[in-house]
Write a structure and sequence with these properties.
18% strand, alpha/beta, 2 domains, three-stranded antiparallel beta sheet, Rossmann fold, globular, seven-stranded mixed beta sheet
Length: 272
């Protein structure tokens, strides 16, 4: 297949997904989409994107399964420990001045970062006055996140991250072993609302003191990156905080002058 035909097939598939299921991947990074769709073709046994499009249009379950390939599924508790240590040491003193707190984890995947934030807030005496909105576009990821059950063999890595991030106890204090995995503590779950939200199509839904959107923008083309950043900016209260991932930056974006770099090495910004 030549490149022109491939481009047409990709465009038609993404248009079909948007029209039928209202998920908009049209401004996602093309290189990333092609890698993910190549894996999807192998999984579904489809030779072409046109064949995959036909199945997606006729079989809703195929689209639900395809979402696993199109959305980011990589998540880890206290991923990038210096980021969480910087939140604890630099941002938390500001958060402690608020009578009530709202935080937003955009692109929360299966919820590990939201639980990590809840643990940090608990240890800093802030969880009882905090509400964490954790959003994603994948219903299956949100279901897993809301259940808060993770494979026990992942917790050795989680615990290393937790201690490196400045954890003040033992991570085992925050989960209970069960026959099918480790269940996160009910105190943490009560502080988190998991819900569907798309940075590509939805609008601002709350004013928050901290928005954490990490390893999401790298999958967007520049236009969608700008849209997402405008949403995040609009959601933040005056002098609110924005956290990005190490490979992401506000430099060279339209929002660069709307923030100051609070902890540059950890990509933590403060709204001006």
């Amino acid at each position: 297949m030549n490149r022109a035909t491939g481009d047409i097939e990709l465009g038609l598939l993404l248009d079909a997904i948007y029209r039928v299921y209202h998920y908009d991947f049209r401004a996602y990074s093309e290189a990333s989409l092609r890698r993910r769709l190549h894996s999807a073709l192998l999984h579904f046994g489809c030779e072409t994107l046109s064949r995959l499009q036909e199945r997606v249009l006729r079989e809703p379950q195929t689209f639900a399964e395809l979402l696993r390939f199109l959305t980011v599924q990589v998540s880890e508790m206290f991923r990038d420990p210096p980021y969480f240590r910087a939140l604890r040491e630099v941002v938390v003193p500001y958060l402690q001045t608020y009578a009530s707190l709202k935080l937003w984890v955009a692109g929360c995947s299966t919820g590990e970062e939201a639980y990590a934030l809840a643990i940090m807030l608990h240890e800093e005496g802030l969880l009882d006055r905090a509400l964490i909105y954790a959003t994603d576009i994948n219903p299956e990821s949100l279901r897993i996140a809301a259940e808060g059950v993770y494979a026990t063999d992942r917790f050795a890595r989680f615990s290393e991250n937790y201690l490196a991030a400045g954890g003040r106890a033992s991570l085992s204090d925050y989960y209970a072993a069960a026959y099918d995995g480790a269940v996160m503590d009910r105190r943490l779950k009560k502080a988190i609302v998991f819900s569907d939200h798309s940075l590509a199509t939805d609008s601002v839904f709350a004013e928050v003191q901290l928005a954490s959107c990490r390893n999401v923008l790298i999958y967007f083309e520049k236009e969608l990156q700008e849209r997402a950043l405008r949403l995040l900016h609009a959601s933040l209260c005056r002098k609110g905080f924005l956290g990005l991932a190490m490979k992401e930056t506000l430099r060279f974006t339209a929002l660069a002058d709307a923030f100051t770099e609070l902890v540059p090495e950890c990509r933590i910004y403060q709204r001006l």
